[in-house]
Amino acid sequence: MEKNQISHFGELDLSSEMMGALKSATYESPTPIQAGLIPLALEEFDVVGQARTGTGKTAAFVIPILELLELDSRQKNPQALILVPTRELAVQVKEEVIKLSLGLKIRCVALYGGTPIRGQLAKLKRGVDIVVGTPGRVLDHMSRNTLTLTDIDCVVLDEADRMLDVGFRPDMEKILRKCPKERQTLLLSATMPPPVQRLANKYMHEPKTLNCSSSDVTVDTIDQHYFTVDHDRKFDLLVRLLEREEPQQAIVFCRTKRGVQKIFDKLGKKLKDVGCMHGDMQQRERDRVMERFRSERIRCMVATDVMGRGIDVSGVSHIINFDIPAFSDDYVHRVGRTGRMGREGVAYTFVTPEEGGELTRIEQRIDRLLVRGEMEGFILTKPPEPPREETPEDTEKRNVSSVLGKRSGKRTHRRRL
Ligand code: AMP
Fold this sequence. Notes:
By secondary structure, the chain is of the alpha/beta class. Helix content is 39%, strand content 15%.
């Protein structure tokens, strides 16, 4: 891991335009990933950076890209390509490019599916400097010959772990093979499982590595609790929790799209300002919901993991894992939606009595114990049924079955908690 002591953007030898943009964005000092990545990227090294969303990782790669763009000799084809796993993230990254290129007239396009391709085609035709896109739509444009990657100087693989998780590997590889060999590649990932390392080994040139995920993988400012709750009490607990906590903004994570829709429908009848996000929604609807969430007109967003990733909304004070995440890494990502940039946040995870093992795996992953939550006057789990007194019929049945031998009934397998 590279160490650095940079505490001011002024120490990074950035252009006056960039210093102006940073000032107007009110970014005063670089975050650790920015202090680590920007100098290496400016020297045109390949860099593998382990950093989750909320650490300022977007600006960490956008700043050097903007600084290294050759504006005098720019052509129609883009010089930088940023691949991201979701449409929402494409929009967010593009917004960061716009923010940090203040006064520079940078041509940036976001290419993602689910919206008519016509607008994107028109922009590409006029010429672009930076493309931000999901691998599927980028590949689509390449096969239509509306996007040429021959002038690419820098490729960014943002949230590489998630892109691989959602099956983008073949598309990513096709895209990378079409980029010039003499290019810079920056890879950002919240986690570094072997598939991400293999991708880096295959497509990067002697990359420098940076690890900006602290050993405590979820940030210190987040209080993390769990409730052991029966499955059929979860919804009532959610309502009680939202009433008690009055979050500034909350994201409620469910495992499936159907689950999201169900909770959204039920919650909408109880509370105002509820929204939902899942992959079956039309792009236009998703954009509308995100915009309402950002402007705090939606206070409580019910979402699946894929949608939750990359949502960067600073007002999120509460994360509620209505369903415990299937993978511990998803826990880290979900909880990372709050406590952003050092702000305080709180996370609650609902665990059914059968899911004790999943909770332990999460605790091992984050190397920290979650605190048991309390909800006054609320019965979280039904007490076990008291043993029933034996009736004469029971005595008779018992006698018959012992006469018949051991074959009566299936063996029930009870999970230990
Ligand atoms: P990211 O990790 O890229 O999703 O960034 C998280 C949030 O931090 C975004 O809202 C950025 O606008 C903000 N941000 C990025 N860099 C800085 C910085 N150096 N100082 C203050 N805020 C920042």
